[in-house]
Amino acid sequence: MDLIKTDICVIGAGSGGLSVAAGAVQMGASVVLIEGHKMGGDCLNYGCVPSKALLAAGKAAAQHRRGAALGITPDEPVISYGAAQEHVAQVIAAIEPHDSQERFEGLGVQVIRDWARFTGKDEVEAGGKRIRARRFVIATGSRPLVPPITGLADVPHLTNETIFDLRAAPEHLLIIGGGPIGLEMAQAHRRLGCKVTVIEGAKALGNDDPEAAALVVAALRGEGIEIIEGAQVEAVRGEAGAIEVKVAGGQVLTGSHLLVAVGRTPNTDRLNLEAAGVTHGRGGVEVNESLRTSNRKVYAIGDIAGRGQFTHVAGYQAGVIIRSMLFALPSKARRDHIPHVTYCDPELAQVGLTEAAAKQAHGDGVQVIKLGFDAADRAQAEGKTRGFIKVMVLKGRPIGATIVGPNAGEMIGIWAMALANKMKIGAIASMVLPYPTMGELSKRVAGAYFSPKLFESSLVKRVVGVVQSLVP
């Protein structure tokens, strides 16, 4: 078995692994990249890219049904579900070259297409070769969690890895799980003409600000999506086209297709991490603040590291470890400035602490500033006034922001920058933005923080009075 010696061996060609490989090789390090499945990982093939493409198709259909308030006669669109899924495939194909084996080999990365297995603390085997490296990066990501529900293993069901293979529209899609994946797929399929029922054991979008989550859930119910909360699934039975889901209390829900969207599980099983002395558990590989594992030669990033299952987190963490691996500089991964978005319509975006978390951590020292979308002239002009922005401020610095409404994912960026750079809220208030834009809401909510200090302060009024009496 041939031996390859390299500076860095990256295991997993998802967003995090690709970022490390590209950055390291272009800075002069020798890099081996190992991938046992598809280049681009979950995000490109089964996650962020295809889900947003299908949501875009659903949004286009929804536009036909709207417009009465703007003087446009609505109509029911003619939908080709198969063509919508072909759009998804075309989007993936358009992005694939950027993540391809050919591109990375062109950069100078040695790519091995096989599953990697540690055989020691500084060595793995893959593709009939032994790879010995100064540093390893585990970036193998995660896969859909399929819970041990009675009967589920014997019933045809979909996950985010298989739902985009469909070409015939489900007549009635049952979805177990009311998190971001479940609700995004619920809305996309409802707008594309399917009947949809979401079954959630607790609260839909239960990890988000309750007020914002309630607005999203209400909007989806308004489109005809049945969302059943507090319904623990006890058993599943049936066959393709006729599936039954039994929930606690005896209620039985029937549908033609079943999507399981209850979370993710880390891809650790093939790695033989014990041979490398890497500690791991149900949540993935255990890492410190520098993203190093119990084996100092081995780092872990992305979903496998259990610090947020988002593509942008993996990309950020790649930059953190490159600083450490290539330049031997101290580098720690922060978590307080990482945003996330649920891409339903309306979108729900969050960065930093929610209102509840901020008050729990800082008590009465937190000020919460909230402004409705109806305060934006652009929102009024477009008839998109449903939503709000809420900012949590501690000693003049934003420590969290929640935005729910159209394009919330775009609007959260300014607050992510503020938290990343520990900016004062005055920096947001001093921006000059073009009128009319939705971005004005961020400036206005920042200005609202100062309004009581300026307009309700007796001291300010006395100072102004004195100045006016003295200045000719």
From TrEMBL:
The Swiss-Prot or TrEMBL record annotates one GO molecular function as:
NAD(P)H dehydrogenase (quinone) activity
Which residues bind FAD per the record?
A: 52, 140-142, 303
Intrachain S-S bonds: 43-48
Q: Which Gene3D superfamilies match?
A: 3.30.390.30, FAD/NAD(P)-binding domain
Q: Which InterPro entries match?
A: FAD/NAD-bd_sf (IPR036188), FAD/NAD-binding_dom (IPR023753), FAD/NAD-linked_Rdtase_dimer_sf (IPR016156), Pyr_nuc-diS_OxRdtase (IPR001100), Pyr_nucl-diS_OxRdtase_dimer (IPR004099), Pyr_OxRdtase_I_AS (IPR012999)
Q: Taking every annotated instance into account, which residue ranges of this chain make up the domain FAD/NAD(P)-binding?
A: 7-318
Q: How is the cofactor bound, in the record's words?
A: Binds 1 FAD per subunit.
Instruction: Detail which positions bind NAD(+).
Output: 177-184, 200, 263
Keywords annotated in UniProt: Disulfide bond, FAD, Flavoprotein, NAD, NADP, Nucleotide-binding, Oxidoreductase, Redox-active center
Q: Give cofactor(s), names only.
A: FAD
**Which residues does the UniProt record annotate as the domain Pyridine nucleotide-disulphide oxidoreductase dimerisation?**
338-441
- Which protein, by its recorded name, is this? Dihydrolipoamide dehydrogenase
Q: Which organism is it from?
A: Pararhodobacter oceanensis
